[in-house]
């Protein structure tokens, strides 16, 4: 299944790149990420709990950075399998491309080629695609928030707003103390 999204961030390309190139910072934007461990410069592992429809699963995902062309393009390979909940596997290749829209704005284009196996695959492409769009909307809002841009609350489901507010306040607190890590 191919998932493709494009959005603009009112921040310079270099600032957006610095943020997305840091797995810890990006993990803080993604809903349901429970932990991230950086193995080395090109590899990290994440534990992600996700619910799609009536099925929930917790995945352990191994990520490898296949290509990194700072500050314009990154390609990631992800492989995971469930460690709790519905049995399944996932595999994806994600390409993130940054393009300067102006000196102070960046267009972010994300293409994900996703393959699911097991019970989640049975749900069908439409339900998975709808959930992907929900996750992407929240991640985009969180990314903008962490880069100091006021988020647009419409795409974020009401029950997710509490997490976004918590992440935003964490970032603002750290930013005021001279650090920007999450």
Q: Could you characterize what this model shows?
A:
- This protein has helices spanning about 15-20, 25-30, 120, 125-145, 160-175, and strands spanning about 1-10, 35-40, 45-50, 55-70, 75-85, 90-100, 105-120.
- With about 180 residues, the protein is an alpha+beta fold.
- It has a single domain, classed as START domain (Alpha-D-Glucose-1,6-Bisphosphate, Chain A, domain 4).
- A seven-stranded antiparallel β-sheet has the order 1-7-6-5-4-3-2.
- A hairpin with a 2-residue loop joins β3 (about 45-50) and β4 (about 55-70).
- α4 (about 125-145) runs parallel beside α5.
- The longest helix is centred in the last third of the chain and has 22 residues, at about 125-145.
- The radius of gyration is 16 Å and the shape is globular.
- The relative contact order is 0.20.
- Mean pLDDT is about 85; it is low at about 150-180.
- CATH top level class name: Alpha Beta
The gross shape turns out to be: globular
Poorly predicted runs of 5 or more residues: 151-182
- Sheet with the most strands, sense and barrel status: 7 strands, antiparallel
Beta-strand content: over 45%
Structural class of the helices, strands and pairings?
alpha+beta
The number of distinct structural domains comes to 1
What is the number of helical segments per DSSP (H or I, 4+ residues)?
Answer: 5
Task: Provide the succession of SSEs.
Answer: EHHEEEEEEHHH
Radius of gyration: 16 Å
The CATH architecture: 2-Layer Sandwich
- The total beta strand count reads 7
CATH topology: Alpha-D-Glucose-1,6-Bisphosphate, Chain A, domain 4
Which homologous superfamily in CATH is the superfamily? START domain
- Helix content class: 25-40%
């Amino acid at each position: 299944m191919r998932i493709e999204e494009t959005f603009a961030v009112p921040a310079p390309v270099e600032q957006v790149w610095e943020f997305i190139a840091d797995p810890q910072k990006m993990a803080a934007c993604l809903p349901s990420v429970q932990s991230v461990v950086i193995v080395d410069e090109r590899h990290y592992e994440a534990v992600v709990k996700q619910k799609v429809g009536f099925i929930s699963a917790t995945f352990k995902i191994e990520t490898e950075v296949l290509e990194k062309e700072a500050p314009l393009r990154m390609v990631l390979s992800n492989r995971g399998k469930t460690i709790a909940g519905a049995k399944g596997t996932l595999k994806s290749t994600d390409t993130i491309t940054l393009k300067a829209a102006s000196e102070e704005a960046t267009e972010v284009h994300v293409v994900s080629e996703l393959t699911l196996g097991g019970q989640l695959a049975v749900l069908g492409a439409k339900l998975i695609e709808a959930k992907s769009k929900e996750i992407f909307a929240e991640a985009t809002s969180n990314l903008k928030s962490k880069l100091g841009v006021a988020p647009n609350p419409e795409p974020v489901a009401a029950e997710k707003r509490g997490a976004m507010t918590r992440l935003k306040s964490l970032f603002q607190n750290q930013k005021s103390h001279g650090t920007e890590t999450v």
